[in-house]
């Protein structure tokens, strides 16, 4: 949305900040719910997730392009469609569909099965940025000039 000039730099920075804080808080709350298993609010993951990097580019590309298209068409079903898409891609991508740096950061802070080593997480974040920028480029190239009327 920032690249498309729909939100300003300051608002984009706040979105990034609050999403990351929310993800970290969600990790802490989850660990509290399962305190008898974790006995900690945070732990640095040692789960190896290498070799799934390209899947992260593809998953992020599909997710971001779908969101851009849904916003362009003023769909009233964005939350439901994104939920279905993410749910399906959890099973269909080799990376288990992190597709969001905030989620990746949160997953670096858990030793649960969903965790990711920080070194792999940083590469995942780079792959997510690449996937998002590719999706935005395709959107601008193919869809941004279309005038879509919604009834």
List the helices and strands and how they pair.
Elements: H1 9-33, H2 35-38, H3 53-72, H4 78-92, H5 101-108, H6 118-143
What can you tell me about this protein's structure?
With 151 residues, the protein is mainly alpha-helical. It has a domain at 42-143. The protein has six helices and no strands. The protein has helices spanning 9-33, 35-38, 53-72, 78-92, 101-108, 118-143. It is globular. The mean pLDDT is 86.
User: What fraction of the residues are assigned to beta strands by DSSP?
Assistant: under 5%
Please state the average pLDDT score: 86
The number of E-state strands comes to: 0
Which runs of at least 5 residues are low in confidence (pLDDT < 50)? none
Return the structural class: mainly alpha
Give the termini separation: 23 Å
Encode the helix/strand succession as letters.
HHHHHH
User: Over all CA atoms, what is the radius of gyration?
Assistant: 17 Å
Largest sheet: none
> Portion of residues in helices?
55-70%
Shape: globular
Q: Treating each run of at least 4 consecutive H or I residues as one helix, how many helices?
A: 6
Labels describing this entry:
mainly alpha; globular; 151 residues
Q: In a few lines, what is going on in this structure?
A:
It contains six helices and no strands. With 151 residues, it is mainly alpha-helical.
């Amino acid at each position: 949305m920032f690249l498309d000039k729909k939100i300003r730099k300051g608002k984009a920075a706040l979105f990034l900040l609050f999403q990351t804080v929310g993800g970290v808080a969600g990790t802490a709350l989850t660990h509290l719910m399962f305190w008898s298993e974790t006995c900690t609010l945070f732990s640095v993951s040692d789960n190896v997730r290498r070799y799934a990097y390209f899947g992260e580019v593809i998953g992020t590309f599909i997710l971001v392009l779908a969101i851009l298209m849904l916003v362009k068409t003023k769909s009233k079903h964005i939350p439901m469609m994104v939920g279905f898409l993410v749910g399906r891609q959890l099973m269909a991508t080799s990376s288990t569909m992190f597709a969001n740096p905030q989620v990746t950061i949160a997953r670096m802070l858990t030793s649960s099965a969903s965790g990711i080593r920080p070194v792999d997480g940083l590469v995942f974040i780079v792959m997510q940025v690449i996937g998002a920028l590719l999706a935005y480029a395709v959107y601008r190239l193919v869809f941004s000039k279309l005038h879509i009327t919604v009834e």
